[in-house]
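Forwarding the complex inputs:
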Amino acid sequence: MRDAIRRLLRQRKAAVGASILLGFLVLALVGPFFVQDPTELLGQPHQPPSGAHLLGTTGQGQDVLAQTVVGARETLAIGFTVGALVTLVGALVGVTAGYLGRRVDDALTLTTNVFLVIPGLPLAIVLGAYLPSGPLRMVVVLTFAGWAWNARIFRSEALSLRGRDFVAAAVVAGESHARIITRELLPNMASLVASSFIGNTLYAVGAQVGLEFLGLGDVGAVTWGTNLYWAGNDAALLTRSWWIFVPTGLCIALVGFSLTLLSSAIDELTNPALRLPPRAPEARPAATPVHLAPEAGALLSVRELSIEFTTEGGLTRAVDQVSLDIAPGEILGLAGESGSGKSTLGSALLRLLPPAAAITQGRVFFEGVDVTALSPEALRAFRWSRVSMVFQSAMSALNPVLPLGEQFHDTLAAHDRTGSRAASYARARELLAMVGLKPELVDAWPHQLSGGMRQRVGIALALALEPRLIVMDEPTTALDVVVQKELLQRVVELKARLGFAILFITHDLPLLLALADRVGILQAGKLVEVDTAQRLRTEARHPYTRLLLSSFPHLGADDVPPPAADVLEQATATNKPGLAALPGGRR
Amino acid sequence: MHYVLRRLGFYLLAAWASLTMNFVIPRLTPGDPATAMFARFEGRLSPDALVALRAAFGFTEAPWHVQYLTYLKHLLTGDMGLSYAYYPSPVTEVIGTGLLWTVGLAGCAVVISFAVGTTLGVLAAWNRGGWLDSALAPVLAFLGAFPYFWLAMLALYLFGFGLGWFPLRHAYSHDLEPGLTLAFLADMGRHAVLPATSIVVATLGGWMLSMRNTMVAVLGTDTLRLAHAKGLPARQVMWRYAARNALLPNVTGFGMALGFVLSGSLLTEIVFSYPGTGYLLILAVRNQDYPLMQGLFLVITLAVLAANFAVDLLCLWLDPRTRAHA
Amino acid sequence: MSSARWLLPLLALFATGGCELEPRPRPPGTLFVSVEQRSAWVRNFNPLFAGAGSRWPTRAGVYECLELYTPSTGGYQPWLATGHTWSEDRRTLRFTLRDGVRWSDGRRFTAEDVAYTFQLLRKHAALDAGGVWRFLSEVRAEDEHTVAFTFSRVFIPGFGDLAAQPIVPRHVWEKVGDPVTFTNPTPVATGPFTEVNVFRNQVFELGRNPYYWQKGKPAVRALRFLAFPTNDQANLALVEGEVDWAGNFIPAVDRTFVSKDPAHHARWFPLFGSTVFLYPNTTLPPLDDVRVRKALSMALDRERLVEIAMYGYTRPADATGLNDAYATWRDADVADDAWVRHDAKEAARLLDEAGLRLGADGVRRRPDGSPLALDIEVVGGWSDWVRAGQVVARDLRKLGVQAHLRTYEFGAWQERLQKGEFQLSISWSLDGPTPYTFYKWMLSSATVRPVGEVAASNWQRFGDPETDALLERFEATDARAEQQALMVQVQRRFSETAPAIPLFPNPSWGEANSKRFTGFPTETDPYARLSPHAEPDSLLVLTRLAPRSP
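Prediction (whole assembly, three chains):
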C-alpha cells in the first residue's frame, strides 16, 4: 500500500492534485481561525476588494474572503462524507450482487439500474423537500441519489474477482459470505475504492453546491453553495459585484480539478495503458555497419538487427544483432521462450513495433529493398502487399464492428487492388473458400465465428494481396489440437499452391521441427542457432537448443505432437495486464 | 427483437419504480399543501375557506393503497391532477409550457458536447502527448470542474451583462411570433448560445477524457495492429477501426450520463430564465406543489428513460454483437 | 478544420439574429409590467378563487370590485358601486351600483351579477376567502342598481370584505361547472383590460376593454407581461428599462436602479406591508411571562436589524405594531412605549426579575437550572427574514439566551408555526382596512387554538378578555370617533401584554420608469400605492397612467 502511494505521488498529476486538495483541507481546518466571522455584517454591502476586505464584501456587508474560507469547511466535510458513504453503499450493494449472484444479483442489479436511469438532481430536490434542513439532510439526499453508479462498477469488479483462486479458497474454507466480502473481496479492490471515493466526492461537492445554490440547503450555514445562493439573492449581477461569486466558483473548480487529477492518476496507475508510453529509443545509425547487404537470392534478409525498448529501468534490448535470411517459398521457424524476442522480431519485419520500441540498428531487406528506410507512405504500401501477418489472436484482431467482407474490401482498397466493393466481396468469397470456409460468411460478423474459423479468416486476409512472405505469430496456440492440425495442413497446402514463404513463430519446438524447412532458436534476443529441422533434431550444437529439445518427451515422433500445455491456460496467462499491475492487493 | 423487448420491459419497470417513489416520498413527511397554499396568501384566506380548499384539492384520508391505486389510474389516463401553485391549471398544462424547451436545450447541448468531446478524445488519443492531449485536456478538465450554473452565471455576467453580445434571458424575444421563420429560429439560436455553451463547456472535458481513455485502450489491441499491418491509411484506421470500437462503451455511458446533464441544465435554465422545467421544479418544491413536483419528476424521468432507450437502439445499430443477442 | 466549415452557416444565422436583436421599436402605448415571478405563464384568469394562481391583474384590473380602499389615502372610493348605506339596525347594507357599466362582451352589468357572485361564494366555500358568509344571511338584488346584504349579526368590519369582492358576470359563470377549478381562459369582465391579445409561455398581453365604463380610459393601449423566474432577472429587466412598472424587492435600490436614470426611475416603498413579528409561543414557559417577552424585545437593536435585513427600507416597529396604513389610528403615546426600544440593561433586569439569572458561563438559567435555549425559526429561502433572524439570534445571545436560528422549508416551518410547535418564529401579521383584523389575530381569545391544532394566525396563542370586549364593541359601531377611541384602548392592551414582538413593518415594493408613461403614484401624489401587488390600488394606477406623447 505504501509503495502504491509512493508511486502515485511520483506522478505529476497526482502530485499537483494532492497538493491542491491538501491546501484546501488545511484551509478548511485552520483557515477559519485566521479570518473574520463570516456571518458578521462588518462593512458596507457590495464593496469591491480593498485592503480591509481583500475579496470585497457581500451584498450584506460580510467579508467574502471569510465566507470563502469558512465555506470550505462544511462543503468539504459534506463532500468527503458523502463520497465515503456513496462508495460504501455502492461497494456493498455491488459486491454483494456480484458475489452472491443469481436472484440477489438480479434484484440488486435491477434496483441499481433503475436508480441509474432516474435523474439524480430532481430526485435529490424532491427528496430534500421533505426532510428537515441541515447538513445531515444533504448527506442523506446525496447518498440516496448517487450510490447506483458505484454499485454497477463494484458489481462487475466483484464478478471478475469471484472466480479467482483466493476467493474459491475462502469459500472452501467455509468462511461466511459477509466475511469473504469484507475480508477478501473489498481489500482487493483498494484502487477501485480509492478512485470511486474520489469520483464520488467530486459528485458530492458538485451536487451539494447545486442544491444549495437553489436554496435547498441550510441557507443560514456558510458553505460554498450558500455563498453562491446569496450572491444570486443579493443582486451580484445587478450591482456588477463579480467578486462575490468568482472566488467561491474558483475554489469549487480547483477542488474539483484536484479530484479529477487524482482520479485520473489512479486510473493510470491501475491501467498502465493510459499512461503516456515512454519515448522510443533513438536509432543509432552509426552503429550499423555500412557494408550490410542482403543475401543474393534471398526473399528476406535481416542484418544485425537490434530492437530496444524504453522501460522504467532504462533501455532493454529485446532483439540483439540478429541476422537471418528466408528464401522464396521457404518455411523458417523461429522458436524460443516467452520474452525471447521472437514476436518482436516478427513485428519488426513490418515495422509494427509498439510505441516504446524502435529498431536501433541493423537493416531489414525485403527483395533487396531496405524496409527500415521506407517513408511512411512507402511503408504503408509495402505492408501486407509484400509481407502479411497472421496473429496469434486473429480471433480478437478482426474488427468486431465490420462484417468480414468490409475488412477484405478495405484491405484491397488501401492497396488499389479492387475496382469496386462488389469486386472486393467476390475476391473475399474466393479467399474464404480457399481456406475452407463457406463463401457466404463474407457477410458475417467476427463474433458469429468460432475461434478456428476466425483464424482461417485471418489467414485468408493474409493471402488477400498475394504477399511473398507471411509472418505467422503463434497462429495456432489458442486453438485445440484438432483444429490446429487441420489449419496447419491447410497452410501447407496453400503454400504449395501459391508459393509464399512463411516465418513461423512459436514456442512449440516439436511443431516447428515437423513443419519448418529451417528452424532458428532465439534466446534472450540472440539467435543462438539456425539450421535445417532435420539437422537440429539430431545434432543441435548450442546447449540451449539441446535443453529445449530435451524438454519435449515425444521428439522423434513423426506426427505433430500435442501442444505443450493447456491451451486456454496459456492464452489467459499472457493476456492479463490489469490486476497483475495492481499493487497493494492481498493475494 | 427479444433484446428490444427486454430493454423496454426494464424501462417500464424503472418507470414504475420511479413513480412509486414519487408517490411514497411526499407522503413520508409532514406538512400539507392546503395549509401551505393558505400561507402563501398571508391570511387573505379565511379558516373556513381553508377547510373547503382541502376538499377542493381532493385531500382524502383514504388508506395508502387506495390512494396509490387512484394515483396509478390517474397517471395511466394522463391525468396528473391540478397544480397547487398554478391552481386550478392541470399539471400537464403547466409542464407543457416548459418541457420542450428543456428537452431542446439540454438535448442540443448534450449532443453537441458529446459529438465535439468524443471527436477531441479521438484526436487526443491518436496523437498521444500532442497539444490536444497535454494542453487542451487539462484545460477542459478544469472547466468541467466548475458547477454548470456558475459557468452560466459567469457567461451571463461577461457576455450578456458586461459585453451585451447575447440576450440575458428567455428562449426567444417576446415580440416575435414563434414559428418556423428564419428570424425566429435565429433569435432562438442566439438565446440558446450562452446556456448551451455553458453546458457544453462544462461537460466537454468529461466526454473527451472518457473517449480518450477507451480509445487508448482500443489502440493497444490486436484489431489496431492488424489494421496497421494491413497498410490501411491512417485516417481509416483512426476512425473506422479505433474510434468506431471505442465509441460503443461511450455511447452506453452517454445514456447513463443523460440524467446528470439534464440535472445540470435545469440549474442553467434558472440562471438564464429559460422557460424550461428547471424553475418549475423549484417552484413546485417551494410551494409544496406535490402534483406538479410529481409530474415534473415523472416527466423528466420518462424523458431520460426514453433517451436511454434511444441510446440502446443506437447501440444495437452500432454493435453487431448486441444485435446477435437481439 | 473541416468542422469549422459547417459551423459557419450557424454563426451567420446567429449574427443575423444579432442584427435583429438591436432594440426593436416597442409597440406604442404598451405598458410592460413585472409583478409575478414565474418561469412560464399559465393561462388562468379566475378572479374568485383566491387560491388560484390567476394572472395579475385578474382580481383588480380585469375584474373590479364595488368600492376601493386605498391605505395611502385612508379612504374608500366608489367604483362599481357609487355608494352604500347601512340600515338603521345595522343589519342590512345596500350598495347602489353605477349606471352604464358594461361587461366586455357588451352585456349590461346589473345587481343580479353582484348577487350571483356572492351566491357562488356561498355555494363554494373555497371561494369565500374572506369568510363573508359567516356574517351574511342573504344577498338580494333589489332592483337593477341596488344590492342588499342582510347580516346575521351586527358586524360593521364586514363591509370591507364585501366591497373588495371582484364581481363576475352571471351570464358567463352560470354555465361554469366548477368555479373553483375553472381557469377562465377568456375573461368577460368590467375592468379596463379584458382582452387576451397574446398568450405564450414567455409573454402575455392584455388589451383594452372595448366597453370600459370610464370614458376615454384606459389611456394605456395594452399590458405586456414577460416571465421572469427570479427577482434578479426581473430587476435586471427593470434597470435596463425593459419594464415600466414593477413591484420587486431590489437590494440597494437607489444605487442599482434610481441612480441609473434619476429623471425617470422612481421607487416608492411606503410601509404599508404587514408588520413582521418575532412570535413567542406563549404556551411555553418562560415565554408566557410578559416580562420575558418584553425583555427579548428590548434586547433587539431594531435600527441595525432594519439596516441589515431590509437595506434600511423600513423603520423599527413601534409599540402598537401597526404599519403606516393605519397612521390615522395610531396612538402616539402607546407607540412610544419603551418595550420596543433597544435597552440591553433593562432587558437583563427584566430577565433577572423573571428568575432567569445569568450563569457563570454567561448563559441564563431557568429556575430549574437548565440553560435558557431558544430556537428561532424562519423559512430557509426567505433571505430578508433569514438575515433578520441572524441579527435577532445574535442580539439574544448577548442577553445570555442561547438563541439558534433554524431554517425550515416553507411547509415545515408553516406547520410548526400553525400548530404552535415552536419557541420563537418570525412571521407576518394579518391586515384589513382597519386595525380590527390586525388586533383580532393578535389578542382575541376567539382566535386562540390549542397547541397541535392549525391556527390561521394568533400563532403565539394569546387571548386577552379585555380586548375581546373592546373588539366586540368595535364590530357594532360605524362612528369613526368611537372606533378610534376603542382602537386606542386596544393598542394600549397590545402594548401592555406584548403578545408578540414586532420587528418592522414591511415596505410595499413599487418601482416605476416614467420614460414612456406618466401618472405613477409617488410620495407626493399618493393616490394609490405604487406597488402593483397592491390590490385594488392597481385599478387606480392602470386607469390613471397615460403614454407620454412622443
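The domain at 275-505 of chain C is CATH 3.10.105.10 (Dipeptide-binding Protein; domain 3).
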